[in-house]
Amino acid sequence: MEIFVLRLSHRLPRDERISTHVCLVARAFGANSVVYSGQHDSGLEESVKKICASWGGQVEGSAMPFDISYEKNALKFMRECKASGYSIIHLTMYGLPLPEKLNEIKNSKKLLIVVGSEQVPGEVYELADFNISVTNQPHSEVAALAITLDRIVNGRELTKEHSWSFGSRIKIEPCAKGKKFRKS
Amino acid sequence: MEIFVLRLSHRLPRDERISTHVCLVARAFGANSVVYSGQHDSGLEESVKKICASWGGQVEGSAMPFDISYEKNALKFMRECKASGYSIIHLTMYGLPLPEKLNEIKNSKKLLIVVGSEQVPGEVYELADFNISVTNQPHSEVAALAITLDRIVNGRELTKEHSWSFGSRIKIEPCAKGKKFRKS
């Protein structure tokens, strides 16, 4: 399955760290790529590229390494994705509970998962094939994305094997106390 | 089960939003209370209290509403928790994979889940009963906390019933498009 994440309306400096966390969760939890709209931010792009350089950018089952790109017009991008066969999942506290729609979502071959910032335009709700809630409480787009990806990949991201598949020379050897590495 | 979350070394202004997301995830995913160390931040405390005022602060099975408090000395606080019977879980990308220790963790009656900022002192690893990884990749303490709580409460946080249990007058009625509320 191919999974893109779209981070809507990135604002500087307000969203610097939250958007970085969104991107790193996308990568660590098995998405293929992240796209963001709002303000262009070369610092955000650098942060993601730096993590890929240190920790690997390879994505299981994908020909392309994990990457980040900017789209000025998020709605146009969503419409184009839809036209080319992506199912669009919009994460919102107002949507249907994730477990209710998970099987349908997992049947899709290509997914675009959209996470918003504070004001999401009504058209996003309309364009989405699934408006999905990860709890009906206010919390965090970082957490909502993590839980959604975790359910889609069946918890595979939690295994050492998944973490070791990113093609980095440095691999963490999980341990009960302290920090252990392996270099290849 | 009683669950406390400890957010280590809050820094201003850098961690303002990440720490807020940590607190909101703690609340939405079923923790009883959040404690933070580092710089005192009345803005962070206000944000959490405001969410509780609007969306409810009641925690299922708990006599006390969800709350936030400050601890100057995090290590002392951890030692006190340990002495009074809490199992301490420290979330770190170097720890053992969550699924390996989940059953042991769920057998505890009282949990303190510790999430760090960039440099976590070695003593935290020593004091922890469980050093646990949510992936062995760098991503986000917000996501790590969400996945850990999700597994501990068996996904209960994703149900409408859980979201409706916070005692707020406004309840979200999950829907396929748009936003629906119910007022009681």
TrEMBL record, chains A, B:
InterPro entries: Alpha/beta_knot_MTases, tRNA_m1G_MTases_N, tRNA_mtfrase_aTrm56
Domain of life: Archaea
Subcellular location field: Cytoplasm
Annotated GO CC locations: cytoplasm
Biological processes annotated in GO: tRNA nucleoside ribose methylation
GO molecular function, one term: tRNA (cytidine(56)-2'-O)-methyltransferase activity
Binding site for S-adenosyl-L-methionine: 91
Catalytic activity: cytidine(56) in tRNA + S-adenosyl-L-methionine = 2'-O-methylcytidine(56) in tRNA + S-adenosyl-L-homocysteine + H(+)
Enzyme class, UniProt record, top EC level: transferase
Keywords, in A-Z order: Cytoplasm, Methyltransferase, S-adenosyl-L-methionine, Transferase, tRNA processing
Enzyme Commission identifier(s): 2.1.1.206
Protein purpose: Specifically catalyzes the AdoMet-dependent 2'-O-ribose methylation of cytidine at position 56 in tRNAs.
Subunit structure of this chain's protein: Homodimer.
Family listed: Belongs to the aTrm56 family.
UniProt name for this protein: tRNA (cytidine(56)-2'-O)-methyltransferase
Organism field: Candidatus Bilamarchaeum dharawalense
